[in-house]
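Just curious. Protein, please.
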Amino acid sequence: MTESGLPERPARRWLVIASSAALVVGALALVLWTAAPAPPVHVVFHVSGTAARATVTYSTFQDDGTQQEEVTSLPWRRELITVGEPEHGVLTVTIGPDGGDVACEVSVAEVERRSATATGARTSALCGF
């Protein structure tokens, strides 16, 4: 009997088919897992204190941009949603010429990342992370 005349083994064929299917499913799962977009992350900037005027500068997490606002009453709060957890960011509060005190806090995914305080005219609290 020649090699081509040997009877085929059905069990071997099913083993090859099942192994191939498992490899394809595993490869597909790996591609979907690595290509999945990062989940959204909630970032909260919070400023409190007694200062009558302050300048607040904070990260927007869009094209490395920042936003600046003149604040005439505290507390101040800004909530942003980012794609994936940010590696860095900034919240800076500069007290106006009338003085007072401020406290800043940054939370990412409900975890406080940084807090700081400042007292006196034209001083700043920096909550960079």
